[in-house]
Specification:
Blueprint (H helix, E strand, L loop, with lengths): L1 H7 L1 H9 L2 E5 L2 E10 L5 E14 L2 E4 L3 E5 L17 E2 L15 E4 L11 H20 L23 H6 L2 H4 L6 E5 L3 H11 L5 E5 L6 H4 L15 H9 L6 E4 L16 E4 L4 H14 L3 E9 L6 E9 L4 H6 L20 H18 L11 E5 L4 E5 L6
Parallel strand pairs: 8-9, 8-11, 9-10, 11-12
Antiparallel strand pairs: 1-2, 2-3, 3-4, 3-5, 5-7, 6-7, 12-13, 13-14, 14-15
Helix pairs in contact: 1-2, 2-3, 6-11
């Protein structure tokens, strides 16, 4: 990645040629070996970290005029903190590639001419002049070390740089998923949206399973762009094709999961069950519970008793410890029903998407990505009044 970005961005090339210790960490430009004075006038070495925006074809641009700084507050020759930096204590989680760097501050200093830096070269030069000027004068130090810092091998599953995570400064939270191997059993309405959300989550691997074909009615409850050539093909082929240019570690297999499929779940750390047939759900539950795999099951029940559609969406979590207890409560249909309205061709894509959202949010709460006020294991969303109720205490329900 380093050489590609240097070759395709003239401002980065100029930084390297001048001698700056340039490196990249996910979606940050990192410049090490930045000298500065501490409160005692002693020489210290810090690093500048700044966000980059990927605009495609190995081209990057700066996001704004601000930087992060790994180091203490820089001082001037007068023994006072350097003014006009807008210093603010800040924590920023970088990857293991930058484990030698601890960001402590963010600085904001706009150029006086037009309030915007032309490129990264101008930005870094400006901040180095301000931060390092006193250290250069007093200690004859400079940041031009020509040091090569290896980026290391990235463990990201994405084929694009994850600028969403860096812009939001949540790299430490996103890292909570890096060892997860997720199974998605069924990619019908809710399962398709769930797969779409998970593809964009930095889990290590996703295994999805569905034997059905992709027909016209599926297009009305499926995310993404329709290609007419997809109609009549296995869903597995359709979704594999849609996402294979986005990430690695994705396999969508044309297969129904049942009690005989234990080997398909080897290494799986979490599963989502998105099937609408009770008997199939029962077999899948037994398999997952016997393997000690925690999972979330989703379901939907609708009726037309009042004319317009009404009903509930269900999200139920079966933990490794209490999976069997939750199964015994009968919260999910484990037998086939001849009167299941959802078996008709009613298009309810927005409810499928909402059901998938609730399931993914719950999973991310379990991983510590989202805050969780109460540890609900069973959630019901009522369509009519847009309310959510939940159960949290397994042994008291």
């Amino acid at each position: 990645m380093f050489h590609q970005l240097v070759n395709h961005n003239d401002d980065i090339r100029r930084l390297v040629e001048k001698g700056y210790a340039v490196a990249f960490d996910s979606n940050y430009l990192v410049v090490r070996d930045i000298p500065y004075l501490d409160s005692d006038g002693k020489l210290q070495i810090g690093a500048i970290v700044t966000k980059l925006v990927d605009i495609g074809q190995d081209r990057i641009i700066q996001e704004d005029h601000q930087i992060f700084f790994a180091g203490s507050v820089p001082y001037g020759l007068d023994g006072k903190p350097i003014p006009n930096l807008g210093s603010r204590p800040t924590h920023l989680a970088l990857s293991e590639v930058s484990n030698d760097i601890t960001v402590q501050y963010s600085f904001s200093n706009k150029p006086t001419a037009n309030g915007k830096f032309q490129d990264f070269f101008e930005k870094i030069e400006s901040y180095v002049t301000i931060i390092s000027g006193p250290a250069i004068e007093r200690h004859d130090s400079n940041p031009y070390t020509f040091r090569v810092v290896e980026d290391g091998k990235s463990d990201t599953p994405f084929k694009l740089r994850d600028t969403l995570t860096s812009r939001a400064e949540i790299g430490d939270l996103a890292a909570k998923f890096k060892e997860d191997v997720i199974a998605v059993i069924g990619v019908g309405g809710t399962g398709a949206y769930l797969l779409d959300f998970l593809v964009k989550t930095p889990v290590r691997e996703i295994r999805a399973f569905d034997l059905d074909l992709f027909y016209v009615h599926n297009t009305f409850r499926s995310p993404g762009k329709l290609e007419l050539t997809e109609l009549g093909k296995p869903k597995a082929n359709v979704y594999q094709s849609r996402y294979e240019n986005f990430r690695t570690g994705l396999t969508v297999t044309p297969k129904f999961i049942d009690a005989s499929c234990s080997d398909d779940l080897n290494g799986v750390t979490f599963a989502f069950v998105c099937v609408d047939k009770g008997s199939s759900r029962a077999g899948i539950f037994d398999l997952l519970i016997s393997r000690g795999i925690p999972f979330i099951d989703v379901g939907m029940g609708l009726d037309r008793k009042r004319g317009p559609l009404n009903g509930m969406l269900r999200t139920t979590y079966y933990s490794r410890e209490h999976g069997q207890k939750v199964r015994d409560k009968g919260l999910a249909e484990l037998a086939d029903s001849a009167e299941d309205l959802y078996q008709t061709n009613i298009q309810i894509g927005e409810l499928n998407a909402l059901n998938a959202c609730l399931a993914v949010i719950k999973f991310k709460q379990l991983r510590g990505f989202y805050f969780e006020e109460l540890p609900y294991y069973h959630l019901l969303f009522e369509v009519g009044d847009l309310s959510i109720v939940g159960n949290e205490k397994i042994n008291e329900d």
